[in-house]
Amino acid sequence: MKTNKNLILTICILIILIAISYVYAAPIGPTVTTISNTTKAAAGAATVNGTGNDTTYPNKAGGFIFTVNLNSVQQNSRWKAYVGNVTGTLTLDDANSYTIYDWSITTSLTGEVYATRASGSINWTNINCSYANTTTAEQYALNHTSNPSDNISATFDGTDNSEFYVGNVLISASTCPTTNIYVNDSAPTNDNFEEVLLYDGGPTYNLSNYPTGFGNIVYTAIIEENADGYRGQVNETYDFQMLVPEVGLATWTSSTAYYFYVELS
Question: What is the pLDDT of residues 189-232, one digit of tens each?
Fold first, then answer.
């Protein structure tokens, strides 16, 4: 009888451990399917052909000085964006990916989408908010230091993030560099499509030893299930929207790879 009780106790402990490992599992790499990409075409020249206020020659322009204001809306090649939807399954697999059981997610989808330039492992147990020095290091790495109006610090200029977990690490509310991605072609007025800057640890950044000892910035989009996105079109909703920086050099004509992870909760 005692053996049976011990067996039952062991099984209960295993079930609890499995449940905890699901709730606090580290983010994993997803299968990515690219649907489309789009960009705005460069605008053509604007015609300027005013005439002066000469009453004798009303169509005359020569001899006059014209004062004009010019407003330009220019595509920003120092940034790119990813939008889309997330699906997933909860599973119990062994080391060789053989499944003993899995569950379809039928309730509300919550969690985060992560993107990082790091091709190696992320130290998820050491994850926390990016602080000023680590954000500065990312700007140096991507040549964003000469554009203070739209660099990484200027873009993630808030600290109003909601509370969430990365694995078993709590990211407290209002502690991290944060921005909100547009909804219906306009800046949102609340926590819609929140994106947060995280950092996976390592020594404090120092310009004299860059890039030695530098950890990894992780761009983090909070999942919002079937929410109206930047276009605001009928029957066009997204689970996530996020910005990630490109190399800021004017001569840059290539593409920076990002490595994506997903955590469902």
Answer: 778 999 999 999 854 545 455 544 568 999 999 999 999 999 98
For the chain, give every domain's residue range.
78-264
192, 185 Cβ separation under 8 angstroms: no
φ, ψ (nearest 5 deg) of residue 196: -125, 145
**Percentage of residues of the chain with pLDDT beyond 90:** 61
- Report the largest interatomic distance among the alpha carbons of the chain, rounded to a whole angstrom: 115
**CA-atom Rg of the chain in angstroms:** 25
The C-alpha atoms of residue 221 and residue 239 are separated, in whole angstroms, by: 9
Contact 228, 184 (CB under 8 A): yes
Peptide bond into 27 cis (omega under 30): no
pTM of this prediction exceeds 0.85: no
* 55: number of Cβ within 10 Å: 6
CB atoms within 10 A of CB 239: 22
Chain centroid to Cα 226, Å, comes to 17
Structural contact between residues 102 and 90, judged by C-beta atoms closer than 8 angstroms: yes
**Looking at this protein, which amino acid is placed at residue 88?**
G
Q: Which residues of the chain have pLDDT under 50?
A: 1-23, 203, 205, 207, 211-212
Which of 99-111 are b and which e, b meaning 16 or more Cβ less than 10 Å from the residue's Cβ?
eeeeeeeeeebbb
Structure tokens at 92: 């119990």
